[in-house]
DNA sequence: AAAATAACACTTTTTCCCACTTTTTAAGCA
DNA sequence: TGCTTAAAAAGTGGGAAAAAGTGTTATTTT
């Protein structure tokens, strides 16, 4: 399985393209290093899936029962932002405009590891997120999350 | 199998035609990229089936027991709007008027992936649909839908 | 030297508009 | 009434201009 580490910055050009930071490039799977799916994140950010990470998710979704209204609702929300992307000859990725809006991206962005995918944040919003976080609250959260896991 | 991704906008011209967005065009099956069936959606929207996606559904429906009044009722409703469509020389699709009414389409429309087919919404109605959705409610829904699957 | 950014040229897609054909509707008349 | 014709509406096809997207090269930064 793919496992990303680290956090890198990048900038969007006038057309909404950005260069995948070299740090992440090195961590991409060897076979399909140019194929991605990008989607809305649960928070005000985007989620970038290398194609290998996306496929099992999509496969799950396509098995759901289409006659269940909840399924349709979920699917609509989940798939609406998902967009297939391929990096261009210069290794850049072009962000769809609706997703840029969703995440409130401007010019400076931050790419953060999220295990088998990468989250994309607006730099300012990302910093603010951290400012609201004290070491203690982080410690509490860690305790809660990691404990539930082991029960 | 066909699997669509993403959400794209289009506009209807005075005659009720729209251009299938390039983003979806690329995802169409190579063999019959101009043949569709369009139908009422369960919600206030339309469902556009590439012909390959329609055929298995139609086949399912034709197998149902005709002596069951509920079957006849369902079939009547489901098939009543279904219309065969072919895109014209410029790649445009002409919407039947009765279906435009059903979905309350005006000028601006949104096309959204529904795995092997595409939903067509009025832009305003679609936006309202999303406004009623908080990240938490989506998260709950996702949890519910994807959990049922694993039981 | 490698990576990131900026600038530019080019191609594709989209939009908007107009002209033409076919079908439908309405109207006139024997 | 039934036929014919005119008018209107609906549907189709295509082209030009604008916008969006893509690729390349050069320059700057680290």
Describe, in short, the structure shown:
The structure is a homodimer of 151-residue chains. Chain A is built from six helices and eight strands, in the order ββαββααββαββαα.
Architecture overview:
2 copies of one chain form a homodimer. By secondary structure, chain A is of the alpha+beta class. Chain A has a single domain, classed as Chemotaxis protein chec, CATH 3.40.1550. Chain A is 40% helix and 26% strand. Chain A has 6 helices and 8 strands. Chain A has helices at residues 22-25, 51-62, 69-80, 97-103, 123-131, 135-150, and strands spanning 7-11, 17-19, 35-40, 46-50, 83-86, 92-94, 108-114, 117-122. At the A-B interface, α2 and α3 of A face β7 and α6 of B. The first copy, chain A, binds a DNA duplex (30 and 30 nucleotides) through residues 10-11, 13-15, 17, 19, 21-22, 88-90, 92, 94.
Main attributes of the structure:
homodimer, 151 residues, alpha+beta, Chemotaxis protein chec, six-stranded antiparallel beta sheet, two-stranded antiparallel ribbon, 40% helix, 26% strand, DNA-binding
């Amino acid at each position: 399985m793919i496992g990303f580490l680290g956090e890198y910055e990048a900038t969007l050009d006038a057309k909404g393209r950005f260069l995948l930071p070299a740090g992440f490039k090195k961590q991409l799977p060897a076979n399909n290093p140019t194929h991605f799916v990008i989607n809305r994140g649960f928070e005000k950010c985007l989620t970038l899936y290398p194609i290998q990470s996306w496929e099992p998710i999509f496969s799950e979704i396509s098995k759901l029962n289409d006659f269940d209204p909840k399924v349709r609702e979920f699917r609509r929300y989940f798939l609406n932002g998902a967009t297939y992307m391929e990096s261009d000859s210069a290794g850049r990725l072009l962000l769809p405009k609706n997703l840029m809006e969703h995440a409130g991206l401007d010019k400076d962005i931050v790419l953060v590891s999220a295990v088998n995918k990468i989250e994309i944040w607006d730099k300012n919003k990302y910093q603010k997120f951290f400012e609201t976080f004290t070491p203690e609250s982080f410690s509490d959260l860690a305790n809660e999350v990691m404990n539930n896991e082991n029960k």
